[in-house]
Amino acid sequence: MTRPPDSPRSTTTADGPGAVAPALEAVALSKRYRLGEVQILALDDVSLQIAPGSFVAVMGPSGSGKSTLLHLLGLLDAPDEGTVLIDGQDTAGLDDDALTATRRDRIGFVFQTFELIPNLSARENVLLPAEVAGRRADGERLLASLAEHLDVADRLEHRPAQLSGGQRQRVALARALVNDPVVVLADEPTGNLDSVSGQEVLDLLRSGVDDRGWTVAMVTHDPNAAMIADRIVFLRDGRVAGEVDTRSDDARERIASFAGV
Ligand code: ADP
Ligand code: MG
Question: Distance from the CA of 61 to the center of ligand 2, in angstroms?
Answer without folding.
Answer: 9
